[in-house]
Amino acid sequence: MALSDQTLVCRDCNQEFVFTVGEQEFYESHRLTNTPSRCPSCRAARKASGGFGGGSRAPREARQLYTTTCSNCGNEAQVPFQPRGDKPVYCSDCYQTMGTSRSNDRRSRW
User: How far lies 89's CA from each of 49, 96, 97, 102, 104, in Å?
Assistant: First the structure.
């Protein structure tokens, strides 16, 4: 099917905008199935305001971090949960190293 420019109406400002053949080809190449519902300027404004929610939500609170000792290397670690003491807790470096070795172990089993 030959593509041609489409004139669409923005859901935010009700202005017409053109969904070009080039944009349609981009959407197809990225397997995007829905046509855009906002004009380029409203899309940019929505993106600048934080995307979903249109900027009407309050900014997200900073996540509380807890200080603990890494079970592997003994260094101080900051984690986003309160350690209970019944499971090991790792600093980010040790956690990454252990995650890499575990994924390698899984691959070698198959």
Answer: 37, 12, 13, 16, 21
Torsion angle defined by CA atoms of residues 100, 103, 105 and 110, in that order, rounded to the nearest 10 degrees: -150
pLDDT for position 72: 93
List pLDDT tens digits, range 24-60.
999 999 999 999 999 999 998 888 877 655 445 556 6
CB within 8 Å of 99: residues ≥ 6 apart = none
| Cα atoms found within 13 Å of the Cα of residue 60, Cβ hemisphere only | 6
Domain limits, the chain: 6-51, 66-109
CA distance 102 to 42: 45
Residue 25 φ then ψ, to 5°: -65, -40
